[in-house]
Amino acid sequence: SQPPQKHSSSRQRKMIMRRSLKLRSITMMILMAVLVWSVTLETCIARRGRHWRHNHRRSSSSDVSDSLSGKKPKSHGNSHHHSSHNNNNNHQHKSKPKPKPKPKQKLPPKADDSNSPVVSRPPKVQPPSLPPLKGSHVFNVMDFGAKGDGKCDDTKAFEAAWAAACKIEASTMIVPPEYTFLIGPISFSGPYCQANIVFQLDGTIIAPTDSKTWGKGLMWWIDFTKLKGIKVQGKGVIDGRGSGWWQQDYPFIDGETKLIVPLNNSAHQNPPMPIRSELDWKMPSIKPTALRFYGSIGVEVSGITIQNSPQCHLKFDNCVDVVVHDVAVSSPGDSPNTDGIHLQNTRDVLIHSSTLACGDDCISIQTGCSNVYVHNVNCGPGHGISIGSLGKDSTKACVSNITVRDVAMHNTMTGVRIKTWQGGVGSVKGILFSNIQLNEVQLPIVIDQFYCDHSKCKNQTSAVAVEGVTYERIKGTYTVKPVHFACSDNFPCVDVQLSAIELKPVQERYHMYDPFCWQTFGELNTPTVPPIDCLQIGKPARNRVQSDHDNIDTSEK
Predict the structure, then answer these.
(1) Which of 119, 160, 303, 396 has the fewest CB neighbours in a 10 Å radius?
(2) Are the beta carbons of 519 and 487 closer than 8 angstroms?
(3) Residue 26: which H helix or E strand, with range?
(4) Is there a contact between 354 and 330 (Cβ–Cβ < 8 Å)?
(5) How many CA atoms lie within 13 A of 169 on its CB side?
(6) Which one of the listed residues 54, 383, 454, 484 is annotated catalytic?
(7) Which candidate, 555, 255, 261, places its Cα nearest to that of 419?
(8) Could you report the per-residue pLDDT of 143-202, keeping only the tens digit for each?
(9) Does the annotation count 410 as an active-site position?
(10) pLDDT tens digits for 325-361?
């Protein structure tokens, strides 16, 4: 009987071991399931936390950028998800009080708080009413050592402020009001600066008047180079204090001066010299432009006043997408070569709502310009709005698609003018002058392909071709000659359209003349006052060359 008992107890031990192993297996499976579930839950929570932190950081930085640039903060597509997520968190954690925000929080929350669960705290959204973060995006020249007393040289302070602003996109460099800053030649340059910088000019900037500062001469005084989205705005003044330069340019001769003959003499009298400046020494022969933009895209100038520049007041060279509005230019009518706005190799330009008074062209449109639109501008004194001069020294010049409309001119030498040199090549085409109001303008409408600002110029056969020029609703008074069309024999002016021209004489101190046309072809779409009978209707015969064109005096016919 003993062997069977041993056999039975062995079977019992095996059953107990099997049951134990089964319980252990079940326990292990339960523990594994719980562990996997907990890890999955933590992973989801962690992912949601990182996602919130990333988007909160992105929205905070964009809101700060938008507040500096004056834009409304952009709404993100996941804002609704964040809102509902945070509401759920508030219900789950009612026992924990909401943390109080710090009174002066200048930096967005850090993104590396991985130790504490993000769901335990609702997001801290910075109120949009807070001012821009001063010191990180706004750079006042006074904080960089500027004195603003008009005597100390503040050039270094301006350079330091620009160096700081240059590093941050949509930053603002402030020139505060009620201060006068003496600034030497300075360049605010890229191309490594960030985009959309604002130069906020509300104070006054004045130029040095000692010849030592300028050395042998510079082409510009304040220069913005190779920038994107640059804005110069405000209610401030840029004063070139140029009288010391002007007195060296007398007598100053414009190409149309020969057409203006005083009644008491056949020779044109030179205007009086400006009042001598405080300088007792000679300035360099090369004169600087007051404010120049070069090689830049998306330029805007608004609100400021530029006055008394040694040469051009505002110049754009090799720029694209330019807007100028609510700008004032002011210098005496006898200040030589002081163009108001000068465009060169620049396209896509809008100029409007500005007042320009100077000693040369209110607006000068040079070679390489296209898609220029000028409207609602007051011009005078000055030499009107001009395309050119073009083709000097036998160079090539191309200008196209220019519109000048809704302009008032008073006491200017010319009104709307196209001027080219003999010997040049290229073309001027697609030009519209519309709704120009004139008050005592000497020469309201001018095309001069024999332009010469010297006492005598060499006659040459080639010329910059002029084609497709429309004059409409040009009205007002003139004091010398209403129309002067002097076109090339080899390259006559073609497709010149005239309509609603009403120009009445006002006798002043000059000899007065009838309209003059030479080699000008086009159409009179309406009767004109006075009659412009000299315009040749239609188109010129091809290859027609006048054999005696070198002997023609274009000053009067």
Answers:
(1) 396
(2) yes
(3) helix 2-69
(4) no
(5) 7
(6) 383
(7) 255
(8) 999 999 999 999 999 999 999 999 999 999 999 999 999 999 999 998 899 999 999 999
(9) no
(10) 999 999 999 999 999 999 999 999 999 999 999 999 9
